[in-house]
Amino acid sequence: MTELRGPVHIVGIGGMHMSAIAQLLHERGERVQGSDLEPSALTRNLEAMGVRVFTEHAAENLGDARSVAATAAVGDDNPEIAEARRRGLPVLGRAEVVAGLMEGKRVIAVAGSHGKTTTTSLIAFILSRAGRQPMYLIGGESRDLGGNASWGGGDVCVVEADEYQRAFHAYEPDVAVITNIDADHLDLYGTPEAYEEAFLTFAQRVREGGRLLVGGGNAGARRVGEAAEGAFGVETYGLTDTCDWQATHLTLADTGASFTVTHGGEPLGELTIALPGEYAVENTLAAAAVCLGEGASFATVREAAACFQGAKRRFEHLGEAGGVLVIDEYAHHPSEVRAVLAAARTRFPGRRLIGIHQPHTYSRIAYLWEAWLECWDGLDELVILETYAARETPTEGRGAEDLAREIAEPTASYAAGFEEAVEQAAALARPGDVVMTIGAGSVTEVGPMLLEALA
Length: 455
What we know:
Layout: E1 8-11, H1 16-28, E2 32-35, H2 41-49, E3 52-54, E4 67-70, H3 79-87, E5 91-93, H4 94-101, E6 106-111, H5 116-129, E7 135-142, E8 147-150, E9 156-160, E10 175-178, H6 186-189, H7 192-203, E11 211-215, H8 219-227, E12 233-238, E13 245-253, E14 256-263, E15 266-273, H9 278-293, H10 298-307, E16 316-321, E17 324-329, H11 334-347, E18 353-357, H12 362-367, H13 369-373, E19 381-385, H14 400-406, E20 411-415, H15 418-428, E21 434-438, H16 446-454
Parallel strand pairs: 1-2, 1-4, 2-3, 4-5, 6-9, 6-10, 7-9, 10-11, 11-12, 12-13, 17-21, 18-19, 18-21, 19-20
Antiparallel strand pairs: 7-8, 13-14, 14-15, 16-17
């Protein structure tokens, strides 16, 4: 593996993963700098630590850098990448850098189509409460840990293992979790079968003597668990009695959930969580199974789970104005939307629910078209914002306006921009209603605008 030598220049330093890498390198004692066109809370946080951030891409930004780390979103035509190549400097991708940072640590890697950010955050939080001082790198900001990364002082590393561009194939975990597998990123993988095969490859990278935990309630994760071959143990977790780790005596309420953790048919104790929905129970059970295996006491698991708030943008309460509660939610796949809306119905019985959804990439609309038409059960009204393009260009016939027109239930309308979405939602909302902004893109900016309009 190519050594990442400081000073290090990071292209795209404002991204969630790249900002985490910058923080880890800085805390390790390296001199770090980087560039990003979009200043954000993440870049401001890095600057407060002493990391220099350029707001344009230019060859001279490299200065005396000896190595470069780059987000997958930039190509060789980027002037900083081109300059690094001209100088003969090593240019490393995200996964390669993360794998290097984890060397010498006991690695716990959490993968899955959904739930990996929350599960990773809770594992790191429990181990922190247990005094293990874990290094962690999370694909979202943890409200409990105060950020998305820490170098830590212990011998264990907790990492969110992202399947995008097969990043998780760079890792060799001692403990791996696969929460679930639902066809996604088919713009890159091509078929659901190829996508699932990538998770099997990840599973088989578990080290000798390690553990693989798979969500027993998800068919894809179960198949990978059954097919994985190696000198490691495979365990299932979930709500059914066929799972090795089971949540029994489950109670879902408007305040969260409570359940008994059962292992091999033996009850270990009860957990109470403030997060809503069955998916939150499954994520908590996965974290408990990992941390109990790492030597954390059940009392520590119980205390951490009880006060765990989760990651930012995951069912995050933004505020209330005019008697209307506004919640921000990161869900950007039909399965996630369906689960989140079911949880919202449990959390807010009898209240009207209004959704403002921003589709994330044109390709995801297209290859999940039928699922997008049918995942809105629980909503009373829906506003569809223009698509967040991310890395893509528009695809005819599969845009946000098409989606709004084709959704049969609930009544859906299209909004070309944020102000229009706010106007529509404010006109629909009545005192007592709950409005949820839903999506992985810039829709997070709509919630504060709506609160201001309602006030």
